Each structure stands twice: as structure tokens, then as C-alpha cells.
Amino acid sequence: MPRLLSTVASRKTWPLRFQIVLLVMSFAAANGCSKGKDPNRLPVFPVSGHLSIKGQTPTGAFVVLHPKAGTATNPKGEVVRPRAVVKPDGSFVFASYDADDGAPSGDYSLTVEWRKIVKSPDGSPVLGPNVIPPKYGRPEWSPVFIRVAEKSNELDPIKLNLTFGARIRESSGSELDAYTALTLRRSSESQLAGREITEAQR
To answer: CA angle, 116 as apex, 126 and 92 as ends, to 5°?
Structure first.
């Protein structure tokens, strides 16, 4: 009788075991198909961190990783530049292909742009100018470097103790940082000088 019961029990559990095996096989097949569909994807590894700017949380700041030469380049020669947006708590998680999937391993320079919401002349909210000094927005100038290892990466907190450019209010009512305003003024001066030369030649 016990042998009969064990036989019956094994027959009852066999369909469940078979379903588990099929489930595992289906996951393996799905993973194999997804890799086969996109052979140019590089392996990525989780990368997260925190950013503060002069003690402030730069909510909505745009952070980008720019790979050094020979890093994060797929078989087609395309360069992968992982991106992230700073959350209200100062945290960010990089993504290369899918949400929060991480970044390829290697060495990177990090750039930051922070455009606060301002009011346009008609009162509607729009993205204002970048309030971060220009050197933090160019990979060749940025002083911030990180390395992504082939594991889960929790970066050391990034603290930018920079001095914000003086705010200059133009006649239109929109705010411009000092760098942008200086660029506009130099352009105007160049145009004025060109007009004077033209008039002198006449």
C-alpha cells in the first residue's frame, strides 16, 4: 500500500515538475532570442549615485557619462553615453538602453546640466538657461571622472562646490547666466563693429 501511494504521489507531482522545467527552458530561450535580436548591445552594469551642488539638491539636473577613447563602443562603432536625471532626493541611476539598466564598464567623464523652471514673458513655465558653469557641461573640460566596474556600482557622492554665475536680467524679462549674457553682448559688439567698418568703407 505505501508503495502504491508513493507511485500515485509521484504521478501527481510530475506535471508540476514538467511545468517548472518548461518555464526555465522558456526563460532561457527568451533570453537567447533577445540577445540574438540586438547583438550590438554592450553588457551594462548598474550605476547609481547622489549629486549635490553647493549643498542644494539639483532636482531635474541632467547627468551624462562620456566614455574615454576605446570605451563603451559597440561593434558598429557607435558610442554609448549613459544618462540619468537627478531625483528630488539627489539620487540618480544611469541608463544606456532600458530604464535604470546601467552603463558599460570603463572610464568616463561626467557632465551636468541644470536648467531650472522659469517664467517666460507671457507667464508660462519654460526651461531656463543652464545654471552650471560651462566647464561642467563639456566632457573635455569636466573635472569629474568615474570608473564603471563589471559589478553593481554605487558611486561616491558627487559634491560640486561651485559658485553660480551672477544673474543678469535682460530687457525681455528672462534670466541669463553671466556666461550666456557675455556671449550675447560680444556678438552684439561684433555686429556693431562690422557695421561701423562697412559705413567707413562707404
So the answer is: 120
Q: Which alpha helices (H) appear in the chain, and where do they start and end?
A: 2-37, 178-201
Which amino acid, 81?
Answer: R
- Of the candidates 151, 147, 179, 149, the residue with the CA atom closest to the CA atom of residue 163: 179
Give the pLDDT mean for 145-168.
Answer: 82
Contact 52, 61 (CB under 8 A): no
Please give the full DSSP string across 105-151, using - where no structure is assigned: SEEEEEEEE-EEEEE-TTS-EEEEEE-S-GGGG-TTT---EEEE-SS
Residue 106 near residue 115 (C-beta atoms within 8 A) = no
Higher pLDDT residue, 95 or 187?
Answer: 95
Place of cell 538657461: 129
Write down the pTM of the prediction.
Answer: 0.62
The more confident residue out of 70 and 108 is 108
Higher pLDDT, 114 or 177: 114
Positive or negative CA dihedral for 170, 172, 176, 181?
negative
From residue 199, how far is each of 193, 194, 202 by CA, in Å?
Answer: 10, 9, 5
